[in-house]
Design a protein that fits this description.
Blueprint (H helix, E strand, L loop, with lengths): L7 E7 L6 H12 L5 E8 L5 H9 L5 E6 L5 H11 L4 E4 L11 H10 L3 E9 L5 H18 L11 E4 H5 L11 H7 L3 E8 L16 H16 L13
Length: 244
Amino acid sequence: MSSSQPSVSIVVPVRNEADNIAPLIAEIGAALDGRWPYEIIYVNDGSTDATGERLASVMAQRGNLRQLRHARSTGQSAAVRSGVRAARGTIVATLDGDGQNNPAFLPDLIAAVEKGSNVGLAAGQRVGRKDTGFKKFQSRVANGVRNAILKDGTRDTGCGLKAFRREVFLMLPYFDGLHRFLPALVRREGYEIAYVDVIDRPRHSGVSNYGFFDRLWIGIMDLAGVWWLIRRKKPTPDVTEVKA
């Protein structure tokens, strides 16, 4: 694969996902090869298994695969941010590293951002989720409360499949849990959101290594903080440069 300047960067945060590395990278390649010049950035969030070694092995075969490593685990939001900051593409797409997010939907998400003149984010909306009934219930409650307070018009913010303009993401205020509030914060900056239905599937192997924000009581302070940020937003100035 070419390592020339990419137009799209795929960011995958992972922690202890050694057995899922090679299969998912192969699926990303199958979805994107020949469509855009792209790079894949895996952010190894302090893994203690063979994740780093598996990535190094695939990197020897793929010139467009990069690995960033956190010395210790700092969470999914921090991992996504590290990947976006290192990205060379103007459009960044994200997906979880456990295989539940199908890379076949990446082209639709990327195209939605690319073709929308004012689209800042394309958000995957899961159908046919493979979680337990209790987790689905938690998610419905949390999404309902979040939408009622923030009015972000999004029924599912927890899906890892997203695509957005890199510059838009980097202008957002950073905090732990940011990736769960992207629709509300992108709207706050005056951009539109595109939605793409995606089909959830079971993870390839292993167990979840990141906690679920779906438990409303964990994220209540973040919810209040984002509500405050939206309330305090001033209109973006219309700026022109005056020439001499």
